């Protein structure tokens, strides 16, 4: 059986790099990555200094409102963006790539599970990539494995950070304040 | 010593979106020749539990805690070579979708023979003979002729039989069946379940049957564990689960079984869906869907306790346990459902005539 790409039906011109030109192997080599001048993923990871990578990433946190009633779930959105036109990778302290916190309590819990293992990991951002994560805080603080306690009315700071040491100082964290009435 | 003991198993998946707590504190045991059922909705952690036993959890998943003891040895301490010698020969698995489990470019017979050659050390001829014997045993007609057929030449039921033949080919002590009948129609389902039952009795193989069909569990299993949001919420012998369910989620699952002669217009369902495993609700994970939930259910996560005594039942050996604050004395009101059982033989009666009704609310 004669296949469509073995016929002349797809042969449109004799330009170099034509994907249908069986004699020109440069196109297929290019597709296979042989002719790519730079693998930007590997390049940025290997050569871009840490401080520059950190400059590339922005972190933002926002809630739909500033004030909530007692017991009302607080929905918030964490946005991270790579401002650079090349991919960027950040090494994190554990496989937990980022964390959120209420008044500094990660996952609104007094038991910190943000670094369950010593195994480091890598948080990758494609060029210009924007990542959005949605979470809801139930207005409770987890005191132990099995116990949650509702919070009192007042002001609370919601924060999000990429899981690297001193994230706030390195510009890889953000926070916002809400009021519970 | 039990054949398999899973103790306080914890499995997490580290994704970009967050940490998925797929299995959290699961403990159970399976005796030799026993049929143990694991039930729950999609996303309850049933399959991840099974894959952990096979040590088939891959990145970004990680077994983070607990022990999986098979014949007394912790599978989590074994190196890859040791686990490969157990996987397939002593613990075998029947996967949900046989078409995906079979390699499309090898003949069915060759795929079964490969396992036999690898684990039992048979030569080509002997492996072929045993394959044909196994294909015949699982009910494939003309097994010698079908040996060289490719998976696409088998029907869905035949593919599932071939996968069962492959799993049983090395005479394993434990067979893990992950929803083996989900992709099949009801007549083939009945045949496959009957076949599994028969083969388990014949070969003395223990079965861990994962399903979301409580009817299947009633017909096949001796003991059952109900899972919800990665945690065990009820463990009991099959009769107790059907005649005396203790956890509102189990009650909801039971009332979801359609019954012949039922005059209701709509099928019963449990309102809502399984919570996001990245962000479980505080307290009891089932409370947003539970008709009996009180405020305390949003603040305390119930441990698995003996519903009669309130004593902890989280260990491997616990026969009966339910995770509900009604049994720890924390709930103000009682669970308001009633179980009506009609008929004599539970195996035949369970599916059709048992009726579970909620108190004030539909469960």
Topology:
The complex is a heterodimer of chains A (181) and B (363).
Chain A: H1 26-31, H2 40-47, H3 50-56, E1 57-63, E2 67-68, E3 74-82, E4 88-92, E5 98-102, E6 105-106, E7 121-125, E8 130-137, E9 140-144, E10 147-150, E11 154-162, E12 173-180
Chain B: E1 4-14, E2 19-30, E3 35-39, H1 46-53, E4 61-70, E5 73-74, H2 80-86, E6 91-94, H3 98-101, H4 108-120, H5 124-137, H6 143-146, H7 156-168, E7 174-178, H8 186-203, E8 206-211, H9 214-220, E9 223-228, E10 231-237, H10 238-243, H11 248-255, E11 321-322, E12 338-340, H12 346-353, E13 355-357
Parallel strand pairs in B: 3-8, 3-9, 6-7, 7-8
Antiparallel strand pairs in B: 1-2, 1-4, 4-5, 9-10, 10-11, 12-13
Helix pairs in contact in B: 4-5, 4-7, 5-7, 7-8, 9-12
Walk me through the structure.
The complex is a heterodimer of chains A (181) and B (363). Chain A has helices at 26-31, 40-47, 50-56, and strands spanning 57-63, 67-68, 74-82, 88-92, 98-102, 105-106, 121-125, 130-137, 140-144, 147-150, 154-162, 173-180. With 181 residues, chain A is mainly beta. In chain A, the strands form 4 sheets. In chain A, strands 2-12-11-5-6 form a 5-stranded mixed β-sheet, with no helix packed on it. The N and C termini of chain A lie far apart (75 Å). Chain B is α/β, with parallel strands linked by helices. Chain B is 30% helix and 21% strand. In chain B, strands 6-7-8-3-9-10-11 form a 7-stranded mixed β-sheet, sandwiched between helices. In chain B, strands 2-1-4-5 form a 4-stranded antiparallel β-sheet, covered by helices on one side. The longest helix of chain B has 18 residues, at 186-203. The two termini of chain B are 39 Å apart. The chains are: A mainly beta (181), B alpha/beta (363). The A-B interface holds A 95-97, 113, 116-117, 121, 123, 131, 133, 135-136, 138, 140, 142, 145-150 and B 12, 14, 16-19, 60, 62, 64, 279, 281-283, 298-303.
């Amino acid at each position: 059986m004669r296949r469509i790409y073995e016929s002349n039906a797809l042969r449109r011109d004799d330009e170099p790099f034509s994907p249908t030109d069986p004699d020109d192997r440069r196109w297929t080599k290019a597709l296979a990555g042989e002719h790519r001048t730079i693998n930007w993923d590997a390049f940025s990871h290997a050569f871009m200094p840490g401080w520059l990578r950190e400059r590339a990433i922005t972190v933002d946190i926002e809630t739909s409102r500033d004030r909530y009633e007692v017991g009302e779930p607080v929905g918030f959105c964490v946005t991270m963006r790579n401002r650079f036109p090349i991919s960027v990778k950040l090494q994190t302290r554990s496989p937990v790539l980022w964390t959120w916190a209420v008044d500094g309590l990660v996952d609104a819990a007094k038991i910190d599970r943000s670094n369950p293992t010593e195994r480091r990991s890598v948080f990758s951002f494609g060029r210009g990539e924007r990542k959005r994560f949605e979470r809801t805080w139930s207005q409770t603080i987890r005191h132990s494995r099995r116990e949650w306690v509702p919070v009192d009315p007042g002001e609370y700071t919601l924060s999000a950070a990429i899981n690297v040491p001193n994230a706030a100082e390195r510009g890889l964290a953000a926070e916002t304040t809400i009021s519970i009435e | 010593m039990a054949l398999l003991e899973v103790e306080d198993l914890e499995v997490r998946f580290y994704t970009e979106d967050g940490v998925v707590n797929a299995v959290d504190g699961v403990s159970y045991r399976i005796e030799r020749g026993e049929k143990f059922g694991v039930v729950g909705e999609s996303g309850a952690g049933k399959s991840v539990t099974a894959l952990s036993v096979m040590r088939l959890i891959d990145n970004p998943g990680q077994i983070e805690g607990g022990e999986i003891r098979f014949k007394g040895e912790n599978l989590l301490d074994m190196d890859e070579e040791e686990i490969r010698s157990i996987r397939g020969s002593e613990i075998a698995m029947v996967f949900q979708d046989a078409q995906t489990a079979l390699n499309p470019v090898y003949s069915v017979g060759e795929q079964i023979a490969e396992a036999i050659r690898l684990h039992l050390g048979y030569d080509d001829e002997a492996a072929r003979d045993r394959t044909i014997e196994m294909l015949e045993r699982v009910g494939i007609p003309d097994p010698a002729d079908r040996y060289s057929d490719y998976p696409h030449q088998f029907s869905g039921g035949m593919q599932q039989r071939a996968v069962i033949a492959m799993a049983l080919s090395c005479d394993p002590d434990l067979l893990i069946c992950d929803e083996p009948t989900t992709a099949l129609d009801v007549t083939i389902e009945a045949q496959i379940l009957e076949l599994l039952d028969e083969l388990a009795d014949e070969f003395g193989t223990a079965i861990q049957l994962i399903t979301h069909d409580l009817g299947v569990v009633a017909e096949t299993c001796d003991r059952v564990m109900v899972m919800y949001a990665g945690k065990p919420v009820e463990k009991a012998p099959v009769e107790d689960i059907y005649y005396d369910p203790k956890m509102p989620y189990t009650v909801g699952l039971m009332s979801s079984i359609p019954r012949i002669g039922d005059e209701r217009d709509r099928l019963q369902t449990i309102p809502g869906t399984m919570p996001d495993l990245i962000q479980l609700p505080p307290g009891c994970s089932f409370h947003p869907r539970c008709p009996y939930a009180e405020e305390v259910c949003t603040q305390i996560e119930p441990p698995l306790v003996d519903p009669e005594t309130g004593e902890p039942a989280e260990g491997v050996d616990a026969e009966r346990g339910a995770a509900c604050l009604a049994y720890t004395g924390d709930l103000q009101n009682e669970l308001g459902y009633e179980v009506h059982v009609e008929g004599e033989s539970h195996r035949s009666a369970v599916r059709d005539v048992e009726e579970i009704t909620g108190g004030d609310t539909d469960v």
